[in-house]
């Protein structure tokens, strides 16, 4: 057994260990999106915050659409990490589209630099949940 395995930090051995994400991971992504949409952040500074009920509905729709898009992507037969990257990018893209649409006609496609905020939310949540699941399974 290696030191990595002893610490519970071994890498998942198959795509099934990473994709599809557990319901717990998907719920954590949704909760993080809701938090991002309802609290002061770089994204909120530019596009405003949403009421909790609207943020909840938006976050669920964003996650469901991103999950469906990632599952149907050409990478679906590749390594799980690549599918997670597609999932993260789709969350980022859809979240940005949602806040821009809500903000109205004042936003344009040139506002894309905010996209890393949404990508960071998705990526950090997914990474935290995968680490948590790996630790619990040991």
UniProtKB/TrEMBL annotation:
Gene3D superfamilies documented for this protein: WPP domain (1.10.246.200)
Alphabetically ordered keywords of this record: Cytoplasm, Nucleus
Biased composition (Low complexity): 112-132
Compartments reported by the entry: Cytoplasm; Nucleus
Domain WPP: from-to ranges: 17-105
Keyword Nucleus (UniProt): yes
Region (Disordered): 1-24, 102-138
UniProt-listed GO biological process terms: lateral root development; mitotic cell cycle
Protein name: MFP1 attachment factor 1
Organism field: Vitis vinifera (Grape)
Top-level taxonomy: Eukaryota, Viridiplantae, Streptophyta, Embryophyta, Tracheophyta
Originating gene: MAF1_1
